[in-house]
Amino acid sequence: MIHCKTKQYANGLTLITAPLRDTQTVTSFILVRVGSRYENEHNNGISHFLEHLFFKGTKKRPSTFEISQELDGLGAKYNAFTSEESTGFYVQVASEKFAQGWDILSDMFLNPLLPEQEIQRERGVIIEEMKMYWDMPARYVHDLAKRQVYGNTPLGREIIGTEKVIEKLQRNDILNYRKRHYSPQNIIVIIAGKGNEKEWEEAVTKSFAQSKSARSQSPFEKAQINFSGPVVACNYKQTDQAHIVVNIPTFSITDKRWPTLDVLTNILGGQMSSRLFIEIRERRGLAYYVRATADGFHDGGLFSISAGLRTSHVKEALVVVAEQLEKLKKETVKKEELVRARENIVGHLAMEMEGSFNIASFLANQYFYRRKIKQPEEFTKEYRQVSAQDVQALARYLFENGNIAVTTLGPLKQKQEKELVSIFSKKI
After folding, report:
1. Overall pTM surpassing 0.85 (yes/no)
2. What is the pLDDT of residues 353-406, one digit of tens each?
3. Is residue 189 a contact partner of residue 33, using CB atoms and an 8 Å limit?
4. Which domain holds residue 79?
5. Is residue 220 a part of any domain in this protein?
6. Residues 6+ apart with CB under 8 A from 322
7. For residues 151, 152, 154 and 157, what is the CA-based torsion angle, rounded to 10 degrees?
8. Are 16 and 87 in contact (CB under 8 A)?
């Protein structure tokens, strides 16, 4: 069990502290309730752009070099990220250096200069980041697949935005966006690791003392599925492999069926002994990587199967996928396979609970989606209670209506879409 304490400040800020004995580090983590879902067509990518700019200097540390030099001098691990629903910043240091690490992180977060020259410079950096992703087909196919499912909506657009929008964003746009979304009621601070909770709380209280609550941000646009029935989109790119994603809409990350979905996902493609890995890679030699994953949002989610294959093997691999989905619907999972999947998930969860950064991330995720902390032991209990009947019932629910979106990126042409969609046209 993770022993943690949650404090709610009058201005709306949430602080979660978790002292840990079996670590020598402490992680300071700031999570903000804003991401690409809060954007529109005209400012798509602004959340990610702003995330970059927090590292570009403060009055106390006027440049990126001074920030990074000081953090590197502490031996810190530090970074930031932007997702569809949140933006996060963290610094992990040796426990005796908490005060210095928190001072830098809070200074960056609360006092960014956001200078015009850095904004201009960072445009180029982000555009190069876009191009890097375009040159990584195994990654970029997932962006195309998400667009196929959600269409031209906030969830369907790329988190990084578009080159056209990034080129047009002005400093005032960024300042106003920060003012609107970076208010205390949208911020969760998590500190986990070795140290003194009282010291942590005093440091956070001092840093955010002048932060005032503001008008709450507008809610994000509800998730909208952009298709029905089986659909296939072949995106042409001259590559040596064709990369495929099979997406099936699911449900909110807080849905009670999520443990069952995790088990189903693990059985299909979550480990080296999973069905798709054995059938597609080991028995047929069609792919180097093949996996199944499940991702959730506040109001929806996606079950995904992905693989990288020789172009001539795409149809055969998709036939195997269709057969395995059908098998899960028709046949009850055997006890040995079910137990292996459940224990694989439980074991990985235990390993994820090692280290201050992992604990901080876990607590942040739990509070972000549930407004409370759900302990690892609760997850373990739920996973071990998933039955073969639960898995079969969920498979029937997810796969019966045929809402399957297949996206390919590689040397496949649009004229091949009809042939591929026919694989899933029969009710699986």
Report:
1. yes
2. 999 999 999 999 999 999 999 999 999 999 999 999 999 999 999 999 889 999
3. no
4. 5-207
5. no
6. 423, 424, 428
7. 90
8. no
